[in-house]
Amino acid sequence: MVLTGELSTHVPGPRRKNLLIAGVVAAAVLAAGLWVLVTQFNERPPWAQNVGYEAGYYRGQQIRKMDRTGDKVKEAVAGGCASWVADGGKKAEDAPESWVRGCLDAVQGRPSNPNEA
User: Fold this and answer.
1) pTM for this predicted structure
2) Coil, strand, or helix at residue 3?
3) Both 68 and 30 in a single domain?
4) Helices (H) and strands (E) in the chain, counts
5) Which spans are transmembrane here (predicted)?
């Protein structure tokens, strides 16, 4: 029921000062969280192992598909993957052991599983 002369009531919101303080606090908490994340992983993404594994796996698949005689596959299993890490680029630099494991899994015909130890 609407009373005469009172069609709507004005409800004041929070003051601008309070909104500004809340915004500054939220920005400070966000910055602190990002700082902790960066210092914990030291400019290395937490998923570097998965990225390195997948890059090595992709390279191993290329070797396996292009090798008609089997010589490159034998070379890769005998230590070629470990020696090719230098050619793997940034993804291999971040997690070289994962890159080698991915390369070996691919050349040996295993399914891709970056989370397996």
Assistant:
1) 0.58
2) strand
3) no
4) 6, 0
5) 20-38
Q: Which residues of 24-60 are buried (b: 16+ CB within 10 A; e: fewer)?
A: eeeeeeeeeeeeeeeeeeeeeeeebbebbbbbbbebb
39 shares its domain with 66 = no
Residue 72 lies in a domain: yes
Residue 92: how many CB atoms within 10 A of its CB? 23
Point out which residues pair with 6 in neighbouring strands.
Answer: 3
Tens-place pLDDT, residues 19-76:
999 999 999 999 999 888 777 766 556 677 788 888 999 999 998 898 888 888 888 8
Token pair 């596959």: residue: 73
